[in-house]
């Protein structure tokens, strides 16, 4: 997946409930591509999605 954004063009990316799909690694790769060096990736996910014992989904 590739957005129309230029590489290293974004200061902050926010993912809100967007990592629920099975293709979430490609979303993270795209965030890495568009974020400027030292850019921020903020993630808001549902706590209940993760195993409370391990933190895994």
Provide the β-strand percentage band: 25-35%
Q: What strand line-up does the widest sheet have?
A: 1-2
Please tell me the overall pLDDT. Answer: 86
Helix content: 10-25%
Structural class: alpha+beta
What sequence of helices (H) and strands (E) makes up the elements?
A: EHE
- Terminal CA distance: 22 Å
Structure report:
Its main location: nucleus. By secondary structure, this protein is α+β, with helices and mostly antiparallel strands. It has a domain at 10-46. Helix content is 19%, strand content 30%. The protein contains one helix and two strands, in the order βαβ. It has a two-stranded parallel ribbon. The radius of gyration is 13 Å and the shape is elongated. The model has no long low-confidence stretch (mean pLDDT 86).
How are the elements arranged and paired?
Layout lengths: L9 E7 L7 H11 E10 L13
Parallel strand pairs: 1-2
């Amino acid at each position: 997946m590739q957005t129309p954004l230029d590489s290293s063009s974004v200061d902050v990316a926010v993912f809100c409930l967007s990592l629920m799909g099975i293709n979430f690694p490609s979303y993270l790769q795209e965030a890495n591509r568009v974020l400027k060096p030292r850019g921020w990736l903020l993630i808001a996910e549902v706590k209940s999605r993760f195993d409370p014992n391990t933190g895994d989904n």
